[in-house]
Amino acid sequence: MWRWLPVVLLLLARDQLAQAANSQSERKQPAAELNAFGGGISTGSHYAAGGGFTIEIRQYITGAFEFTYAGAGLDEISKDYQYADTISRSASRTLIAEFAAHLQFANARARVVPYLSAGVGIVNSRMTLTNTRFGQTYTTPVHAEQTAGAIGGGLRCYVTRAFGILPEIRAYTTSRPFVRIGLGIFYRWQ
After folding, report:
1. How far is CA 30 from the centre of its chain?
2. For residue 15, which phi and psi values (nearest 5 degrees)?
3. Where in 32-177 does DSSP place strands (E)?
4. What's the CA gap between 2 and 16, in Å, rounded?
5. pTM of the entire structure?
6. Cα(42)–Cα(110) distance, rounded to whole angstroms?
7. Is residue 48 classed exposed, middle or buried when 0-12, 13-18 and 19+ CB atoms within 10 A define those classes?
8. Domains, the chain, ranges and CATH?
9. Residue 173: exposed, middle, or buried by beta-carbon count in 10 A (0-12, 13-18, 19+)?
């Protein structure tokens, strides 16, 4: 009777290895998503547009890289750059690049998936100041970068299995905090 024990153990081990190999081959690839949005930021009536890429890390957690282009000037993003009323500004723009984590509150198969977002990034702002004194016009380009924290949330509203609408709101913590509100679209694949 004991002489059959190694054979039985070998057969059981073979079955366990086969099941493990099957589960490895059936494991799904992580879902990824491309998105684009338009909206505004709270430092005046300025537009904002951008996009991003997310990838599923766990079932309820995704990692994201997002970028935003906004028409806000450096004086509206940073307290360090204020200018007199006699100076005009033009050619203002702000770029935001950030890495974030999204915590989803529903399974990805749900039609509406709320999420919270937290991340860090860089806010790069530029503007051109023009001043006229004694008949001479002086133009000065001004540039600054700040590190910013970002928190927010949104909804992934699936229209089909792959496409959807993405409303979101995000607050940035620069030397002059601001909020970005956007409405976008996304494409998700697995």
Report:
1. 18
2. -65, -40
3. 32-41, 46-58, 61-70, 88-104, 112-133, 136-158, 163-173
4. 22
5. 0.73
6. 31
7. buried
8. 28-189 (2.40.160.20)
9. middle
